[in-house]
Design brief:
Helix content is 33%, strand content 22%. The protein is built from 25 helices and 32 strands. The protein has 5 domains: 69 residues; 182 residues, Rossmann fold (3-Layer(aba) Sandwich); 183 residues, 3-Layer(aba) Sandwich (Rossmann fold), CATH 3.40.50; 57 residues, no CATH class; 96 residues, 2-Layer Sandwich (Alpha-Beta Plaits).
Length: 822
């Protein structure tokens, strides 16, 4: 019997890498006129027919009658994959060793997949047929109408709110039994939306004591209540940080009526103030020459260019002029920045020129804001998109240019599946649209500069600061003598002296200390005991503000002890972080106003913006922070930059360490003296003769590159070869190690047989840089090779064989190419 229906090929979320392929589903008759390739659906999958989400890859006529499961639900919303999106997802699947759904999900606003829990959606029958089957029951008809009319599955709470029926659950269960509606659980992927939750006391402190009562946890609960009482209103994240309380404990205090929690939305897309217009800027001769050359590349053909401009050379103005040109031609533009902390200044500047044509995309937007910006972009209301790496997926039509500012930054590479690099995704999109990919930096990555030297990228240079501003004078301070003398101060005499001079001139300074907290660790002076995290194989970092030892990886914390728990000896604090530097500044420069900017102070949606605005208004003399203060910031009154410990990033132990150090030092030094007054910089280091330190001090990228490219060639590292890394993790170390040995053996065997053309040493199994992370042990296996189809096919076979082995059930395996952190 021929049905003459339609078949949908669906990529489902529940399919693991080894069985990832389009699965055929029958399209119900009432969906046939609405279903299209790229739409989101829900389908039954597996032996239990559990409902799972998926994307339609194709729709075709049914050629033969087969026993197929039917599509359960079709999403009628604006979120769908275009033909370009589907091509991009397939490309990412091949290159980043992930499933199609994982790749496609990266293209969708995270808020669309954010809700967990039980949800209800129509059965695959026509709405009118379903209504006729419930007869004249007005309540059931109203509930059924609400479920069928919703463009997405709805929760029980939403049904109750829409219908006003407080006992809707009873009727919903009856509808389920009659198979007129369906239910699914956890059908959306949780993305961890970053709502700011604040806590305040719901009762007086005396009443709080009575309600908390006595017991094992009473003292810790009371400590949290007292902390809130002292502050008035406190973000829950900060409350947990200060007291060591868990989020669960805060919820308990809310439940018993001690705390009142409030969800606060503080981020807003910036609007240009009425009457505010950009200042008149004329390009310098060097800028104009670069702009003219780049403008010629906006010819409708794909091009890639690298703009190497020293810090303060005016790259941003060239970006603006190029986007103006692109928009005048009716095309669209994407501007990527490496960190959220940089977006406020960039957005404000671009809004002056492009007003409401600017859309923003980054992870600190609320769920609603992400969706709204996505719709504005897709509908064509916004043609200029600014954001972090996820903005590379913005659903723009007629793309004319993609700009990647500070293109060397590792934040452009995703650490989660799919482990894509925004630069490579941008290349794909520029080829598809015939657009220009422009990468800009004062410190280009070695790989990008090598590609430019080889002629694969067009190379343009700006060798002088904007309108002749002089580069900062840089002093390298050798800190080895201070160490020998027993001086425990972190700030050397030279830096303190220059800070005092800058304060006296009413100018501002930036200090970089690329480690948060107060001390690196606590150590027993008698037996050498170091407090460790119970969930991670790292030492705990001391934070003076809350007097606790904390893990910077999983968030575990414990109170600081004065005595060693092993031998009773004294626990001494060693090393330094931003909190210790802040305290030292207060002690050595009385009255100095310091703003600290690190992960402990930037814990809300706009805290970074508020801190930068306060500093720009002159409310502080010194901006002290981690690497988020090192790049992209432009402050007129900053004339001094100090690097407290330039060696931190040199000791990471991988081949990117030298490049990271040079880039960080060069970028932060470039924050000084960007206007009329010549800036000064101090680099404190225990390795004053290191090539990266010397090259950064002289702002000499050429010297750095000449040294580094030889080292990379000797190591057979990128750009001469690619590093492919398998990471295995699981709760039991021996099982993870055994699985890693199996992966290594599979590679050895492959190189001796079918994949002999690759033949390269297999490195590992080896412990990851942090062996234990959040109670999961991690081992790595790696090899070097070229990014080519044969290597990708090998990796596909290894991943497939691993997932099909019953011995690896509790172990996860991922593959990555050229990871930044080994």
């Amino acid at each position: 019997m021929s049905r003459n229906g339609l078949i949908a090929g669906v990529a489902v979320a529940s399919a693991v890498y080894a069985i990832d392929k389009p699965y055929d589903y029958l399209v119900p008759a009432f969906m046939e006129d609405r279903i299209r390739a790229g739409q989101r659906v829900m389908v039954p999958f597996g032996a239990g027919n559990r409902k799972t989400e998926g994307f339609v890859l194709s729709v075709r006529p049914e050629e033969e009658v087969r026993a197929l499961k039917a599509v359960a639900y079709l999403f009628d919303d604006e979120v769908a994959l275009s033909e370009e999106d589907r091509s991009l997802a397939l490309w990412m699947k091949r290159h980043y060793f992930c499933t199609f759904f994982e790749a496609a999900n990266a293209l969708i606003p995270p808020g669309m997949w954010n809700q967990n829990g039980e949800v209800f959606f129509p059965a695959p029958v026509d709405k009118e047929e379903a209504l006729s089957m419930v007869g004249s029951s007005p309540v059931k008809r109203e509930i059924l109408q609400a479920i069928y009319d919703s463009p997405r599955p709805v929760t029980l709470g939403e049904i109750e709110k829409q219908t006003g029926q407080k006992r809707a659950a009873i009727h919903v269960r009856e509808l389920l039994k009659r198979e007129l509606i369906q239910v699914s659980q956890e059908y959306r992927r949780k993305q961890g939306d970053k709502n700011i939750v604040t806590a305040s006391l719901a009762v007086s402190l005396e009443q709080a004591r009575e309600q908390i009562g006595n017991g094992k946890l009473a003292a810790r609960r009371m400590k949290a209540a007292e902390c809130v009482a002292q502050a008035g209103v406190l973000p829950v994240q900060e409350l947990c940080y200060l007291t060591g309380a868990s989020p669960g404990m805060i919820k308990t205090l809310e439940k018993i009526g001690v705390l009142a929690l409030q969800y606060v939305e503080t981020y807003r897309r910036p609007r240009v103030r009425k009457g505010e217009t950009p200042g008149q800027v004329t390009l310098s001769g060097a800028q104009q020459a670069v702009f003219d050359s780049l403008r010629d590349l906006l010819d409708g053909k794909p091009h890639a260019a690298l703009l190497h401009g020293v810090t303060g050379s005016g790259k941003t103005q060239i970006y603006i002029e190029l986007i103006r040109k692109v928009r005048a031609c009716g095309k669209t533009a994407v501007m990527l920045v490496p960190e959220i902390a940089l977006t406020p200044q960039i957005i404000r500047q671009f809004c002056l020129y492009f007003h409401d044509d600017v859309a923003v995309m980054h992870s600190s937007l609320t769920q609603a804001q992400r969706y709204d910006e996505y719709k504005r972009i897709k509908s064509g209301e916004a043609g200029v998109v600014i954001g972090t790496r996820t903005a590379v997926f913005a659903p723009l039509k007629d793309l004319g240019i993609v700009i990647i500012d500070e293109e060397q930054e590792h934040t452009y590479k995703s650490e989660n599946t799919p482990r894509y690099h925004a630069r490579e995704v941008a290349k794909f999109r520029c080829v598809h649209h015939g657009a220009l990919l422009l990468m800009g930096s004062a410190t280009p990555s070695v790989e990008s500069f090598y590609q430019a030297q080889e002629g694969r990228y067009r190379l343009y240079s700006l060798t002088e600061r904007f309108f002749g501003a002089l580069p900062p004078q840089v002093m390298i301070c050798d800190m080895r003598g201070k160490l020998r003398s027993g001086d425990e101060n972190e700030l050397g005499a030279e830096l303190i002296s220059l800070l005092e001079e800058t304060l006296n001139r009413k100018e501002q300074s930036i200090l970089l200390m690329n480690r948060r907290g107060s001390a690196k660790m606590a150590v027993c002076t008698s037996c050498g005991f170091i407090p460790q995290c119970g969930r991670c194989s790292v030492s705990l970092v001391y934070h003076s503000r809350n007097n606790r030892l904390m893990c910077h990886h999983c968030g575990f914390s414990e109170e600081r002890l004065e005595e060693c728990p092993r031998c009773g000896g004294k626990l001494r604090l060693v090393g330094a972080g931003t909190q210790k530097i802040e305290a030292e500044l207060a002690a050595r420069l009385p009255g100095v106003r310091v703003l600290r900017m690190d992960a402990d102070t930037v814990n809300g949606r706009t805290t970074h913006e508020q801190l930068l605005d306060r500093f720009d208004r002159g409310e502080a003399d010194i901006l002290l922070g981690t690497q988020m203060v090192s790049k992209g910031l432009d402050f007129e009154r900053v004339t001094l930059v100090g690097v407290v410990d330039a060696d931190l990033s040199l000791m990471s132990g991988d081949f990117y360490a030298t490049e990271r150090t040079f880039s960080l030092l060069t970028q932060v030094v470039g924050r000084a003296g960007r206007r009329n007054d010549r800036g000064r910089a101090v680099i404190q280091t225990f390795c004053p003769d290191h090539p990266a330190v010397r090259a950064a001090a002289s702002q000499d990228y050429g010297a750095f590159y000449s040294h580094e490219i030889l080292a990379r060639e000797a190591l057979d590292a990128p750009p001469f070869c690619n590093l492919f890394l398998f990471t295995l993790s699981g709760p039991e170390e021996q099982q993870v190690l055994r699985a890693a040995l199996g992966v290594a053996a599979t590679l050895f065997k492959a190189f001796s047989g079918e994949f002999g053309a690759i033949r390269t040493p297999v490195l590992g199994p080896a412990p990851a840089a942090i062996l234990k992370l959040n109670n999961r042990y991690r081992y790595t296996v790696s090899f070097r090779g070229k990014d080519q189809p044969l290597v990708r096919r090998l990796i596909h076979l290894v991943l497939g064989a691993f997932s099909q082995s019953g011995q690896n059930r509790k172990v996860s395996l991922s593959a990555d190419m050229d990871p930044y952190i080994l």
